[in-house]
């Protein structure tokens, strides 16, 4: 039977642009360009490598996000994923990690899966907790923060490099993994891949399709809230310490004055 892989990918504001909060203190996604989160490219890459090692695998990329999030799905499809699912609904605006994980879980169950692959964190929210919550919601083992992954004989194996130890982990499928930015460079889409992606299926789902009530998600259903946000002050000109024999001392005094040391 085919190995069904679902990769969760997030459409995020381009980190090189000028990012803001909107008036309701959610991330302003309207006025900035977005893209497939770089950290999720690693997840797509690992799914592609698992698929290439398998006799019969199918990769679905899944996102919960606004209309433009289709761009992230197209990029993943052009890298080589087979099909995409886009959960989009006006009532999702302001959904926090608990709501997002609930929506993803329903969409994954509807799609069918043996292995769910996530990135280590998104590059906007950077909570890094969604994979763990999602595994709990799906009721499957979670093997997170892997830098090396393989799937054999109905099991997923991986290496997790911690600060003090390296662990070799294994779980029976169905399971969820997350992969780090140390798992291997993500491939660039080829011209052929970009052309092929235009014809690959993208299924759109809304909250009704997933039997989710509007009040379970959105700002109203969120368990977390941004109370306040202050814009970062503009950059000031740096302090230049000229070394005329006393440079080291002056530098130490400057750092001490700033309470860095
Ligand atoms: C108070 C609050 C308000 C928010 N309002 C909005 C909003 O208005 N609009 C909005 O788009 N987001 C909003 N978000 C963020 C959004 O819901 C996040 O996707 C969610 O909180 C996950 O957290 P994270 O991005 O830090 O994920 P992490 O836990 O850092 O992500 C880890 C991995 O989970 C997967 N993942 C995360 N998010 C998604 C996703 N959306 N689709 C598919 N895979 C995903 C990816 O594989 C990613 O690498 C809000 C969050 C909070 C806390």
TrEMBL record:
<dbReference type="GO" id="GO:0005829">
    <property type="term" value="C:cytosol"/>
</dbReference>
<dbReference type="InterPro" id="IPR014730">
    <property type="entry name" value="ETF_a/b_N"/>
</dbReference>
<comment type="subunit">
    <text>Heterodimer of an alpha and a beta subunit.</text>
</comment>
<comment type="similarity">
    <text>Belongs to the ETF beta-subunit/FixA family.</text>
</comment>
<comment type="function">
    <text>The electron transfer flavoprotein serves as a specific electron acceptor for other dehydrogenases. It transfers the electrons to the main respiratory chain via ETF-ubiquinone oxidoreductase (ETF dehydrogenase).</text>
</comment>
<dbReference type="InterPro" id="IPR014729">
    <property type="entry name" value="Rossmann-like_a/b/a_fold"/>
</dbReference>
<dbReference type="GO" id="GO:0009055">
    <property type="term" value="F:electron transfer activity"/>
</dbReference>
<dbReference type="Pfam" id="PF01012">
    <property type="entry name" value="ETF"/>
</dbReference>
<dbReference type="InterPro" id="IPR012255">
    <property type="entry name" value="ETF_b"/>
</dbReference>
<feature type="domain" description="Electron transfer flavoprotein alpha/beta-subunit N-terminal">
    <location>
        <begin position="24"/>
        <end position="214"/>
    </location>
</feature>
<keyword id="KW-0813">Transport</keyword>
<dbReference type="InterPro" id="IPR033948">
    <property type="entry name" value="ETF_beta_N"/>
</dbReference>
<keyword id="KW-0249">Electron transport</keyword>
<protein>
    <recommendedName>
        <fullName>Electron transfer flavoprotein subunit beta</fullName>
    </recommendedName>
</protein>
């Amino acid at each position: 039977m085919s190995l069904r892989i679902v990769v969760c990918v997030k459409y995020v504001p381009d980190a090189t642009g000028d990012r803001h909060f909107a008036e309701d203190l959610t991330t302003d996604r309207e006025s900035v360009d977005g893209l497939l989160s770089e950290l999720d490219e690693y997840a797509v890459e690992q799914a592609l490598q698992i698929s290439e090692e398998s006799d019969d695998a199918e990769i679905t990329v899944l996102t919960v996000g606004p209309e433009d999030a289709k761009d992230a799905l197209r990029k993943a499809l052009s890298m080589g994923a087979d099909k995409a699912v886009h959960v989009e609904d006006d009532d999702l605006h302001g959904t926090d990690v608990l709501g997002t994980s609930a929506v993803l879980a329903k969409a994954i169950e509807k799609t069918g899966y043996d292995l769910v692959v996530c990135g280590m964190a998104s590059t906007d929210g950077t909570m890094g907790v969604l994979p763990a919550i999602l595994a709990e919601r799906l009721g499957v083992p979670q093997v997170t923060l892997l830098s090396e992954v393989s799937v054999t004989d109905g099991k997923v194996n991986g290496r997790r490099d911690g600060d003090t130890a390296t662990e070799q982990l294994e779980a029976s499928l169905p399971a969820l993994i997350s992969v780090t930015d140390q798992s291997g460079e993500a491939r660039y889409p080829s011209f052929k891949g970009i052309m092929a992606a235009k014809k690959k299926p993208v299924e759109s789902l809304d909250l009704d399709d997933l039997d989710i009530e509007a009040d379970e998600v959105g700002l109203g259903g969120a368990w977390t809230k941004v109370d306040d946000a202050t814009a970062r002050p503009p950059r000031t000109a740096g302090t230049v310490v000229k070394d005329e024999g006393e440079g080291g001392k002056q530098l130490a005094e400057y750092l001490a004055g700033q309470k860095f040391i």
